[in-house]
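[SOLVED] Predicted holo structure with zinc ion

Edit: marking solved, answer below. Original request kept for reference. I posted the sequence and ligand SMILES and asked for the 3D complex as structure tokens.
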Amino acid sequence: MLSRRVLIVADIEGSSGCWNYAASSFLTHEWALACEAMTLDVQAVVKGLFDAGADEVIIKDFHRTGYNLMPELLDPRARVDNGYAHGPIPGMGDPGRSEIAMFLGLHAASGTRGVLPHTMTSRLAEVRVNGRLLPEVALFASLLAPYNIRPVFFSGCPIACQQARNEVPQITTFEIDKTGGPDGFDATTWRHRLAQSAVGALTNCNTRPLEGRGPLEVKVVFRDGAPTAKKMAHRWRLQCQGDAVHFIADDLPALFDTLSRICYLVPVLLPLLPLALPLYNLKGRAGLAWVRHRLKKGA
Ligand SMILES: [Zn+2]
């Protein structure tokens, strides 16, 4: 059976134009080029999905500010959600009537090898759940489970793909091999194959929504070491041990909530979040305007 309503969650690290940390950073020359390549990757998939019979595609831009994709280069039939939303899904917003999710351009977990690996932020050296290193795909997929949205497709570096298959058995994966560097990488051919693979996943009926039920025993190790762990433990009332904090989460969505707080917030800001988000999104929009200007000048 063919699923016709698709949610795409797009990141930049595993996309075809991101070859180093600068390209995943904000307002760099490399980032401008990576935004364009990421948009073209997503567009190849979107076109393929519509051609194959999809009738609803929602694209969630989920890298850094959430403003990396240029909607004007994407099929107008798709809805592009830039920026971050307070709800109904934390960060992601409204998933519409999506039946399945496709994760494009993701990366491997903190503490593992792969291209630009991290979980939430590179400031976290490791996030372990019941002893296992946690990749973001598990967190994001779990946010979609209450809406009965099944993860069916994942693309990223080979290690990221392996981690996705571990978290979501039977998920279709498509790799990007960056070991040879950007020179000589044939993005057009790769994109074409990416789209073909994603279209094939429209009939992947073998996956289940990832509920991520707990209790989950969580350990978060900070790259900056014990002083940061101590500060975060105090700030969020968690247990601290050396360079890590420990806590129990009820399930993966609850873990996502706690990690988001640890990585991006301070308690005093929590009640202000509905006000702070539009400001943060404004920063993202300004960044994307800068990208367009840069690309027009021939970045
Ligand atoms: Zn990212």
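OP edit: The pocket of zinc ion is lined by residues 11-13, 24, 63-64 (CB under 6 Å). Thanks to everyone who chimed in.
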